[in-house]
Design a protein that fits this description.
Length: 397
């Protein structure tokens, strides 16, 4: 457990930085030196998002040595961005100094073996369950989503904290390779794990969640699923259902290379009057669909559709929702998480989505990355683990 930032009556200060340096040591030095220069003092917490092209330990050690943050966490990513620009194969960082807040870093390991135990390890480091001097409890959660069942992890965290925390974050990426992802805890890069930054504050932190997808098929029942593998819909093999839909809508569906189809045709699980998105990534030999996140057996689902303008509008609305939650307070900075599938689907138009977020934030800067799923659990917002969804977390001045 690592802690930082206890005090009163001093404003939050945030710094966002990025680098295109390909050498990991130089990239870490550039990030750390820029943070130290812009902040002018030791940051309470730094979050790093880095491409899988980097040597994570070398990068993180260089950041640590350059700016000496009290807390350093982060994750591997699939596209990195700040208010100053975006790229792939890069690295960026988000630094906070807020004496009126209390920060604690936590880690849970062996996520695939026992999500409840991993969640318990994270929550055992939280101070908000016993420290009641702060009115707001938030945790930024970054998980190795390839370990699976991140939705259940969020449920476990919610249960163990009695629903008193708001969670926001995403699943680590590896530049759309879907082979191995890491979370960062200090200078350590870990697989099969989850890290969290607990933030206790007396000012609200805004969280907005939108995706911009609409139903395009009839409602179907998930009649069989095994973890992240969707076996059947309405007792029909999932591949057959998708193939029939592709023919009916005049789209090409290549089972040996299905990602182009699924970037434009994802699945939506009904949750009340909303849909939690799931992106299929491959067709297994048995005709089941291998998805980015688990699809619960028995749930109702539809095939969903969207377009490029809808993605930008969703990000804009998520940012607006987050800012509105600040009330009369002005935004100081924001974290933005969006799905790698969105970036792959809309290409260079992803820049328009970032511009919409900046338009809502005004002069406030943001940093973030493309993730393998997005985490959001907050009152008044669509909660859980999502795919193809824009999630914005706004910090007030």
């Amino acid at each position: 457990m690592k802690q930082a930032g206890q005090g009163k009556e001093k404003p939050l200060k945030a710094v966002t930085v990025q680098t295109d340096q390909v050498d990991s040591v130089q990239a870490g030095q550039e990030l750390g030196n820029a943070i130290a220069q812009k902040m002018g003092s030791v940051p309470d917490a730094v979050l790093v998002f880095a491409s899988s092209t980097h040597d994570y330990q070398a990068l993180l050690t260089a950041v640590q040595d350059a700016c000496r943050p009290a807390i350093l966490i982060g994750c591997s990513s699939a596209g990195e961005f700040t208010s100053a620009g975006r790229g792939e194969g890069a690295a960026c960082a988000f630094a906070l100094q807020a004496p009126e807040m209390r920060f604690t870093a936590a880690v849970g390991r062996r996520l695939s073996e026992n999500r409840e135990a991993a969640a318990q390890d994270v929550v055992s480091s939280f101070n908000g369950l016993s420290d009641h001097q702060y009115g707001h409890r938030t945790a930024i959660v970054l998980a190795d989503a390839l370990a699976g069942f991140t939705d259940d992890l969020v449920e476990q965290l919610t249960r163990l904290t009695g629903g008193t925390y708001r969670f926001v974050g995403g699943g680590a990426g590896d530049d759309a390779r879907f082979q191995q992802t890491h979370v960062f805890y200090g200078t350590e890069a870990i697989t099969d794990a989850v890290v969290a930054l607990e933030i206790l504050s007396n000012k609200p932190i805004g969280i907005g969640v939108r995706h911009g997808w609409q139903p395009a098929s009839d409602r179907m029942r998930v009649t069989e699923a095994e973890g992240v593998d969707l076996v059947s819909l309405n007792a029909i093999p999932a591949e057959e259902v998708i193939g029939e839909y592709a023919v009916a809508t005049g789209q090409d569906f290549d089972r040996t290379a299905p990602v182009p189809f699924f970037l434009h045709n994802t699945l939506g699980i009904e949750v009340g009057d909303r849909y939690r998105l799931r992106v299929p990534l491959a067709v297994n030999d048995d005709g089941s669909l291998h998805c980015a996140s688990d699809v619960p057996a028995g749930s109702l689902t539809r095939i969903m559709k969207t377009d490029t303008p809808s993605a930008a509008q969703a990000a804009e609305e998520a940012a607006r929702d987050a800012v509105d939650q600040l009330g009369e307070l002005e935004p100081e900075a924001a974290l933005f998480f969006d799905c790698v599938a969105t970036r792959l689907r809309i290409g260079n138009e992803f820049g328009n989505e970032l511009a919409k977020v900046q338009g809502i934030l005004g002069q406030a800067e943001y940093a973030g990355c493309n993730t393998y799923g997005q985490i959001a659990r907050a009152e008044g917002q669509f909660g859980g683990f999502h795919n193809c969804t824009a999630v914005v977390c706004v910090f007030p001045k």
